[in-house]
Specification:
Blueprint (H helix, E strand, L loop, with lengths): L12 E6 L12 H11 L3 E6 L6 H6 L7 E4 L2 E4 L1 H9 L10 H31 L6 H21 L11 H15 L7 H11 L2 H26 L1
Parallel strand pairs: 1-2
Antiparallel strand pairs: 1-3, 3-4
Helix pairs in contact: 1-3, 1-6, 1-8, 4-5, 4-6, 5-7, 6-7
């Protein structure tokens, strides 16, 4: 039922992200999830930029919230990084097993990363990002909610290297969620989660994805500098 024809000709894959960004989000823009998945799967792709400062109607046609990234595969366009990672995984047994049981394990953990962990981390991240240190019952509830999720993940990862029996698309998304939490020292009390994140960051495909994303925005800086000097 889940067999995939590896000989089927694939359309050229295009990753679209912003053409430029300020320094702070670089290395954490969610196009890194797609870059990483493409590198792990060994699929050829190119990268295109859309204006960060002026988001036109065509941008909103591809991404209805005016964000990035999106992935183009022939006449198919996928927005939301988790959906794009899953689309890539469908093309490669490296990231998603073809057997029903293995496939279901990866998919449920991919959605858990997005819905159970990332969703819990976002309110906490907003407080951290804005430097809001105000104590309140609501703030304490947000902290407790994230702590509960991370405590459960400590238990899940205690006795294994990856979320399933081998590295998969689910790990790409979960690790990237952890990276944002760790940026504000949110994993300092969760050594198992942090070691899991570091283990994934040591993978060559991640290192290349990270370097390519940062390089993409540095090239934009150079273009801006040239334009300013003319």
């Amino acid at each position: 039922m889940f067999a995939r024809d590896r000989k089927q000709e694939m359309a050229h894959l295009i990753l679209t992200t912003f053409d430029w960004l300020p320094e702070f989000p670089r290395g954490y823009v969610r196009d890194i999830r797609i870059r990483w998945a493409l590198e792990e799967a060994g699929l050829p792709y190119s990268v295109e930029g859309v204006p960060f400062k002026e988001r036109d109607a065509d941008h909103f046609k591809h991404q209805p919230f005016g964000q990035v990234p999106w992935l183009t595969d022939g006449d198919v366009t996928i927005f939301e990084s988790g959906a794009a990672v899953l689309h890539i995984a469908e093309k490669s047994d490296v990231l998603l097993p073809s057997d029903a049981k293995g496939r279901s394990e990866v998919i449920k953990w991919l959605f858990a990363a997005l819905n159970s962990v990332e969703a819990a981390s976002l309110p906490w991240f907003i407080f951290q990002f804005t430097g809001n240190g105000e104590e309140s019952d609501g703030r304490e509830a947000i902290n407790d909610f994230l702590s509960s999720r991370l405590s459960h993940m400590e238990d899940v990862l205690e006795s294994k290297d990856w979320l399933t029996d081998r590295f998969s698309a689910a790990d790409i998304v979960m690790v990237d969620v952890f990276r944002v939490i760790d940026r504000f020292d949110g994993l300092s009390n969760y050594p198992v989660c942090r070691n899991y994140m570091k283990r994934a960051e040591d993978r060559p495909a991640f290192k290349k994805a990270l370097a390519d994303q940062i390089g993409h925005f540095k090239q934009a800086d150079l273009r801006e500098a040239v334009m300013d000097s003319n």
